[in-house]
Design brief:
Blueprint: H1 2-25, E1 27-32, E2 37-43, E3 46-51, E4 54-60, E5 87-91, H2 97-105, E6 110-115, H3 118-127, E7 136-140, H4 143-149, E8 154-159, E9 163-165, E10 168-170, H5 178-186, E11 188-199, H6 207-218, E12 223-228, E13 234-240, H7 248-261, H8 269-272, H9 297-300
Parallel strand pairs: 5-6, 5-8, 6-7, 8-11
Antiparallel strand pairs: 1-2, 2-3, 3-4, 9-10, 11-13, 12-13
């Protein structure tokens, strides 16, 4: 019996080892940068980018415009408030899902991407097809520093910047404060729009941070809206410099007009705008405004 048990344990160990070897076989690139442990692997027809064990980007190899995470499609909703977007600043690159879509669907739009980690830029170019062109420039810089030094005005600023601390995935605190949003507003045109991705929920997981960020953005921008993702734990904030409020009926009308005119070609756009919320998240009622002097992001995230 001991002999049989030994054979069973050996078989289980061999199977586990084969599984590990098989999983590692899908890894096509791995490196450590000053900011991340970066891993690229292919699995089930998808190419996946991970930072420090957290999945950042997913791309269908057979069609790079598909396979991305749902939340990236909510980063197209700013067109509801500005139908003539010409110049965009995106803070955070990852595998370039949003940049790739903007280059494909809005061929007359100029995009400036700001990415702090040069290793991420290299990986995005080599393994995810991100390209610098006359209409897409990449700047290796901190997002706040870039905006402070910018001489251009933007129609849209998109924030999708995450970092990893010893407690887990987090947003850099200096990109969450009233002072930061005042800077972003100063770099937007009169009817400019800010879009900001947050990993969390309106109610539930990370809702304290969602509430605090809403309260902080609303301290600077006259209107702030929410688009909670349905298939992931993401909320995209959209803040507008124009004070005119939008309701769900207005959003549907504007969306239908954009699709009908061909200005928006994103296949799921009409479905995504159904997530629109124009009321504050519950956590905003008891949240303090985040400032450069006090922005306890880690505590609010429960890290």
């Amino acid at each position: 019996m001991d002999f049989l048990r030994g054979l069973t344990r050996l078989a289980l160990f061999s199977a586990a080892l084969l599984f590990v070897i098989s999983a590692r076989a899908s890894v096509i690139f791995e490196t450590y940068s000053p900011y991340h442990h970066i891993l690229v692997n292919d699995q089930g027809g998808f190419r996946i980018l991970s930072f420090d064990g957290s999945t950042e980007t997913r791309m269908l190899l057979a069609n790079p415009l598909r396979g991305h995470f749902e939340y990236t499609e909510y980063l197209h909703t700013p067109w509801l408030w500005n139908h003539e977007i010409k110049r965009v600043a995106m803070v955070g690159l990852g595998g370039g899902s949003t940049q790739r879509a903007y280059q494909a669907y809005y061929t007359n739009v100029l995009v400036d991407t700001v990415e702090l980690d040069p290793a991420v830029v290299s990986v995005a170019k080599k393994y995810f097809g991100v390209a610098e062109t006359a209409k897409h420039k990449i700047y290796n810089e901190d997002g706040r520093v870039f905006l402070r030094r910018a001489t251009e005005s933007y129609d849209l600023i998109i924030m999708d910047a995450y970092t990893t601390t010893r407690y887990g995935s987090s947003i850099p605190p200096h990109l969450t404060t009233r002072e930061f949003f005042a800077l972003a507003s100063s770099r937007l045109i009169t009817n400019g729009v800010l879009a900001y991705n947050v990993i969390g929920q309106v109610q539930g997981w990370h809702s304290d941070f969602v509430g605090a960020l809403y309260r902080t953005i609303k301290d600077v921008f006259p209107q702030v809206y929410l688009f909670p993702a349905r298939e992931s734990q993401n909320v995209v904030f959209v803040a507008t410099k124009l004070a005119e409020p939008f309701d769900a009926a207005r959003v549907r009308r504007e969306g239908a007009a954009l699709v009908r005119s061909g200005a928006i070609k994103l296949p799921m756009f009409s479905a995504r705008i159904q997530s629109f919320i124009n009321t504050p998240p519950p956590g905003a009622a008891t949240s303090a405004v985040l400032t450069d002097d006090r922005a306890p992001v880690e505590g609010l995230l429960g890290n």
